Amino acid sequence: MQSKPSDLAPAPTEIELKSAQQELAVQWSDNHQSSYSLRYLRGFCPCAECQGHDLGDWTFIESPDDIGVQTIEPVGNYAVSIRFSDEHATGIYSWEVLRELCPCEACQSLHGDEHAMKHYPTH
Ligand SMILES: [Zn+2]
Ligand SMILES: [Zn+2]
Predict the structure, then answer these.
(1) Ligand with the closest atom to the CA of 89
(2) Does 5 map to a domain?
(3) Measured in angstroms, how far is the CA atom of residue 109 from the centroid of ligand 2?
């Protein structure tokens, strides 16, 4: 018996851009909820230009404080591509990456020192 990938990994059931709050909210198929600030999402853009080829060793990329999102486009049924207001548009955020980036405390403790929040400069 083979199970589909969607049976194994959680996928978003809803992705909502809250421009006024500069936030992206994601509802997951396993009832988890994630809320990302756009500065955080832009900062950990998973494209090769931003992160090199070693995903998981997170590098924070600075962007304007008022960074926004211009478009969010689905990529197949496994990811979204996000175009930010600084014209950066090469980031493909797979469900796996989005889930790994979830800044909630449960996800932080799941990933420990490897979680992106550990590399997120607060100011
Ligand atoms: Zn990037
Ligand atoms: Zn989480």
Answers:
(1) 1
(2) no
(3) 9
Structural domain boundaries, residue 35: 12-119
Of 44, 30, 54, the residue nearest 82 (C-alpha)? 44
* Ligand positioned closest to the Cα atom of 36: 2
Q: Is residue 52 left, alpha or beta, with left meaning phi > 0 and alpha meaning psi from -120 to 50?
A: left
Q: What is the pTM of this model?
A: 0.90
**The domain that contains 58 carries what CATH number?**
3.30.2020.30
Which ligand has its closest atom nearest to the C-alpha of 117?
Answer: 2
- From the number of C-beta atoms within 10 Å of its C-beta (0-12, 13-18, 19+), residue 27 rates as middle
Q: What is the chain's mean pLDDT, rounded?
A: 92
